[in-house]
């Protein structure tokens, strides 16, 4: 009765009413399909990202202590340039100890890979690993540089691309700002694969910048039994970048 009244009031014919009903049903189907597609896309976006990661030591004769690689959320930073280093960064940068950083990152929900090189990463050598990031969208990397007082290779919260592909990232060297760069053998780890001089008086005696900053590099000298540094300037110097990271997003 109501439909007949509406038809009469609006002067709508049966054919016109059928066309309206068909159009309404078509629009309903389109909306449902669109909602389903959106749901599928959201589901795909929440799936874990699988990454293959390779970190290459790009220096001539600088060594990396065990690497720490962490996938984490945007509000997490293992370090930040221009800020004071945490105790965990200090332990890594001065002695190669990544245990504190690993615990710190893990406690934030990060996915952590420790020591993918199974020890020291030599010049020109790559360490490879794979990681499942879940819904985490940032990547950070750290390792101490040898020989340095408190130098480290670092990557701070790199945004993981959502699009599958292979990406290359260049990593710089940082100074933790926690120890004077005196470049004396007594002030840094002494692994057997590094030849130190003796009798240096010290390049620096105090910390000149107590915030995390780009490392100025070793000064060194060529006097094996004196001079200002115990580091051989013909061997243990570098320019940035010190590492190349290749990330394949699957």
Helix count from the secondary structure assignment: 4
Count of distinct structural domains: 2
Biggest sheet record: 10 strands, antiparallel
Q: Give the name of the CATH superfamily of the largest domain.
A: F-spondin domain
Structural class: alpha+beta
Topology as a string of helices (H) and strands (E): HHEEEHHEEEEEEE
Shape: globular
Radius of gyration: 29 Å
Proportion of residues in β-strands: 25-35%
Helix content: 10-25%
Output the CATH class name of the largest domain. Mainly Beta
Poorly predicted sequence stretches spanning 5 or more consecutive residues: 1-10, 30-46
Care to describe what's here?
The protein is of the alpha+beta class and about 250 residues long. The protein folds into two domains: about 1-45; about 50-250, Immunoglobulin-like (Sandwich), CATH 2.60.40. Helix content is about 25%, strand content about 25%. A hairpin with a 4-residue loop joins strand 6 and strand 7 (about 150-160). The longest helix is centred in the first third of the chain and has 32 residues, at about 15-45. It is globular and about 55 Å long. The relative contact order is 0.18. InterPro entries: Spondin_N, Spondin_N_sf. This is Spondin domain-containing protein. Pfam families: Spond_N (PF06468).
Short description:
The protein is of the alpha+beta class. It is built from four helices and ten strands.
């Amino acid at each position: 009765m109501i439909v007949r009244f509406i038809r009469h009031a609006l002067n709508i014919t049966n054919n016109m009413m059928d066309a309206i009903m068909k159009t309404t049903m078509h629009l309903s189907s389109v909306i449902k399909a669109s909602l389903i597609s959106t749901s599928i896309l959201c589901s795909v976006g929440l799936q874990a990202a699988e990454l293959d990661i390779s970190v290459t030591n790009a220096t001539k004769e600088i060594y990396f202590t065990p690497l720490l690689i962490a996938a984490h959320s945007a509000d997490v930073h293992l370090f930040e340039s221009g800020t004071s280093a945490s105790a965990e960064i200090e332990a890594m940068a001065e002695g190669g100890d990544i245990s504190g950083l690993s615990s710190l990152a893990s406690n934030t929900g990060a996915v952590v890979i420790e020591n993918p090189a199974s020890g020291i990463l030599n010049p020109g050598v790559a360490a490879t690993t794979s990681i499942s990031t879940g819904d985490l969208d940032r990547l950070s990397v750290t390792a101490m540089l040898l020989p340095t007082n408190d130098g480290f290779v670092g990557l701070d919260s790199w945004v993981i691309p959502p699009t599958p592909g292979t990406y290359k990232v260049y990593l710089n060297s940082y100074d933790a700002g926690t120890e004077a760069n005196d470049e004396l053998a007594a002030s840094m780890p002494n692994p057997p694969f590094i030849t130190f001089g003796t009798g240096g008086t010290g390049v620096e005696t105090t910390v000149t910048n107590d915030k995390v900053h780009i490392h100025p590099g070793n000064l060194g000298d060529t006097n094996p039994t004196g001079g200002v540094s115990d580091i051989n300037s013909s061997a243990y110097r570098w320019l940035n970048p010190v590492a190349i990271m290749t990330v394949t997003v699957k």
